[in-house]
Design brief:
It is built from nine helices and 17 strands. The strands form two sheets. The protein has a 13-stranded mixed sheet. This is Cell envelope integrity protein CreD.
Length: 448
């Protein structure tokens, strides 16, 4: 029994196959704490989203705003035949319902000046803004002659102007629409729709003033976060947006004009010009005003550096870093014939996993580059000193140190790249494979 145990021990210590199996098994075991690290990154990222969402809700969420819309009620008369069982005959019942007609502007000009600032809670940060918006344009001549609605059924005395928006909480000044010589104060209307409604009082002499093209204007100050968008309801819609935010993401159904777009560290300026032919809806609706938010255009104000996203991308290369590092130790063991115990392999692997927890925790209080540098330096120094105790001398520990520096540097470069990440990663892995093949060619693989 002692002889069999001794033979097995010698096989484990001297057989290349046995050592490869041990390292492979340890690599699989180390996937467990690596998955826990990935779960921790997702948990912290979700917590960040939760805090940012709470900050935005208290300040003001995303803003989507339409231009003014004229709403004119009208009567719909319908007749219904009803059978009377007592008289055994049909009689006609007239039914009257009130419907609404909605008319959009011919010209819609929007100017917005967006001033952003960061809001912090604990270690988390959100970008919010205050926007000063000016809207002006012209309504067309409103004429029902092309419809089958009789003139006497049009309720001109109940005509109003309304606005559609997503963020009533963020409005800081009561919008007043200047229509001809009248200033119309706006009040909110109850609605469960995504776009809230703000509506004016009845327009005096609506039939007369809408008999010709009618100019309008209003100003609005509003707090918001995440994005600022507009609905292109004008037959011709022109919009200009200026901001001190340096990393805009132009979003929605239309992009700004390339010739007038400027982006710098001091902010951005963008202009849009959208014609009726560019979007798929008409200039008037009868009976129901549909949700047109799918046609919105504008800008997302985003934080360009997401530390958790970069940490998650780094952790995806964890199996590569751990596998290659253990492989380097295995090759050193095979070349030098220095015995490395499985426990020592496990300690090295756990040190490599600790890199990711250090990266997450430090990046929450600093930028990603500093966090990456500190975490990588700490792990490289720890493993280099530990390998000095295992491998004796300085030759192999310095090789380990150089390998880890190159590997962490290579991973950092890939993380920073976007368009060329796959190309650089593939070339890098090819070179690593070539080095391993060249290094291992002198090993006597017959010692099973």
């Amino acid at each position: 029994m002692e002889q069999k145990k001794s033979r097995f021990s010698n096989w484990m210590r001297n057989s290349i196959t046995a050592r490869m199996l041990v390292v492979g098994f340890l690599l699989l075991v180390l996937l467990i704490p690596l998955e826990f690290v990935k779960s921790l990154i997702n948990e912290r990222a979700y917590r960040q989203e939760e805090v940012v969402r709470e900050i935005n809700q208290k300040w003001g969420n995303e803003v989507l705003l339409s231009g003014p819309i004229v709403k004119i009620p009208y009567k719909m008369i319908s007749e219904e035949k009803i059978f009377n069982e007592k008289s055994n005959a049909y009689y006609t019942k007239t039914k009257e319902t009130i419907e609404n007609a909605y008319f959009f502007p011919d010209e819609l000009n929007i100017t917005s000046n967006v001033n952003t600032k960061p809001l912090n809670r604990s270690i988390y940060e959100s970008v919010v803004y205050s926007a000063a918006i000016g809207v002006k344009g012209n309504f067309p001549t409103i004429d029902f002659s092309d419809t089958d609605i009789p003139e006497e059924n049009i309720l001109w005395e109940k005509a109003t102007v309304l606005l559609k928006t997503t963020n009533l909480k963020g409005i800081k000044t009561t919008p007043v629409v200047n229509l001809a010589s009248e200033a119309l104060s706006m009040t909110p209307q109850y609605s469960t729709e995504y776009l809230n409604t703000i509506q004016s009082k009845y327009i005096a002499n609506a039939k007369e003033i809408f008999a010709a093209p009618l100019p309008f204007s209003f100003d609005l100050k509003i707090n918001g976060s995440e994005s600022l968008k507009f609905l292109p309801i004008g037959k011709e819609t022109d919009a200009t947006m200026k901001s001190n935010w340096h990393s805009p993401s132009f979003d929605g159904n239309f992009l700004p004009e390339d010739t007038n777009k400027e982006i710098s560290q001091e902010g951005f300026t963008a202009t849009w010009r959208i014609l009726q032919i560019n979007r798929q809806f008409e200039q008037s609706f009868f009976g129901h005003l549909p949700d047109l938010s799918a046609f919105a255009f504008g800008t997302k104000l985003i934080i360009p550096v997401d530390e958790y996203q970069k940490s998650e991308r780094t952790a995806k290369y964890g199996i590569l870093v751990i596998g290659l590092t253990l492989l380097v130790f295995l090759l050193i063991q095979l070349v030098s014939r220095i015995y490395i115990h499985p426990f020592q392999y496990m300690m090295i692997g756990l040190a490599l996993v600790m890199f990711y927890t250090l990266l997450i925790s430090i990046s929450e209080h600093s930028n990603f580059f500093k966090a990456y540098a500190v975490a990588a330096f700490s792990v490289i120094v720890l493993i280099t000193i530990y390998s000095r105790a295992i491998l004796k001398g300085f030759k192999f520990p310095l090789l380990i140190c150089g390998s880890l520096v190159s590997l962490y540097g290579f991973i950092y470069v890939i993380i920073q790249l976007e368009n060329y990440a796959l190309l650089v990663g593939s070339i890098g892995l090819f070179l690593i494979l070539a080095i391993i093949m060249f290094t291992s060619r002198r090993i006597d693989w017959n010692n099973d």
